Putative short chain oxidoreductase/dehydrogenase
Amino acid sequence: MSAENKPLVWLITGSSSGFGTSLTFIALRAGHKVIATSRNPSKTPELVKQIEGLGGIWLTLDVTESPEVLQKVVAEGTKKFGRIDVLANVAGMSIMGALEDFSPKEAQLIFDTNFFGPMKLTQAVLPQMRARKSGTIVNFSSGAGINPQVTMGMYAATKFALEGFSQGLVQEVAPFNIRVLIVQPGPFTTNMAIAGTFTEKEMDEEYYATAMGKFIDVFKGDPGEWKTPNDVEKGCQAVFEVVTRTGRGKGKEEHLRLLLSSEVAQRALDQNAKIKAGYDAFRDVWENTKHDGGVSKSYMDLQREKGLVQK
């Protein structure tokens, strides 16, 4: 059996809905092993039964818990299947509203869920992956991790943090043959996309008079009136292929980011264009910040000597 077809052991967070549910079923039906997790398995008994019927296990996991609690879940899953090959950090949440209206408690909750949870779980699985010299960390980001829309600033902040963490991580773990993949979905039909959650503090009328008011009104309206354009099942099938290096994912393992929809792909292009525009606009600044007369050996020279950057 080739490495691409070898059954993998997946630990998937947020398995009770959306991307987590779909990815869990796709992996199991392909013959892989899955440690499915959610905060309250008792709320989805039929789903738990289905997953276990396909050979998976379901564990209680709240990603906002302490590192010690998360490590115990990783240890329990590892004991069952012998290892964890793929950690898929799917669980997430969003709170919409003006940034000035966020309470410290609300900001902490969204960061605990979207950033610190994935960070702690990654730290928990990395030792065994390093020891085996193999493994994959999949972090679900968002189009907001490229360029946020109005009212999504705090959510975007958590995704920017996750993207930065992932981009740093990929360099640290590459020598151990551990892969890092950032998934950037965009608008998919999930519970989080349809059922909006808002700051406890009501947005000021001055904000409502801007584009922010129109954006909030969409999410406060009847979810039956609109539908996001992308299908979760199709998106998760793509994630599965990229992780397993099969189908459309074959030969593409050097790429860090998986753009999962045409909308998020366009946002990436637009953001890159803005970065290029800034590069051109401030050329007269960044070309003229070096010490007069130069220095005998710079920080970058030292990095080049050690092979840390390209010459």
Notes: The first helix runs from residue 18 to 29. The chain has twelve helices and seven strands. The two ends are 40 Å apart (CA to CA).
